[in-house]
């Protein structure tokens, strides 16, 4: 019985965060190096690891989260190996080296608790969608794990004059230094989004990357907040 399953055994730990296959995140937990992770994402763990759902520090920072009820995060602490997943979505691991990333809240799986982070309104979209779009900006030295509904594409905006256009429902993350603006198009409604109503796009320009998933979030990210 063990021999056919040998290929699925955990690999030796080589980093703080790494993939186990495409759909699972493995985190090497150490005392004093806490983790913030999406509530309900734990699928297994080894060692002694404790969980605190929606701790006070998270509630204070994320009081303006798009749900209006605080961020769906839990603090994980202790020693051992922690395995996280999000309904079989692909997991993308990023090691921030003093830079930052702006992440769609529905695609945020986990990040080092010592990183600087906050919930911010995306500028340039308010006129298209009431109060606009909210994202989580994370920066510093540490690890971040994102999810994608399918294998994502990472588009390098390259710093040229050409803009990169993305369906908001397919957007995962982007470099926070990029310029963002909204665009409305009737002609493109059969090509972008699910083909109903007006087509909203997000236009990115500048030096940085945009991460796009091959599946649209079922949440209407540009609905009116209020």
UniProtKB/TrEMBL annotation:
Record Pfam families: AIM24
Signal peptide interval: none
InterPro entries attached to this UniProt entry: AIM24, AIM24_sf, Trp_RNA-bd_attenuator-like_dom
SUPFAM superfamilies: TRAP-like (SSF51219)
Name of the molecule in the record: AIM24 family protein
Organism field: Streptomyces albidocamelliae
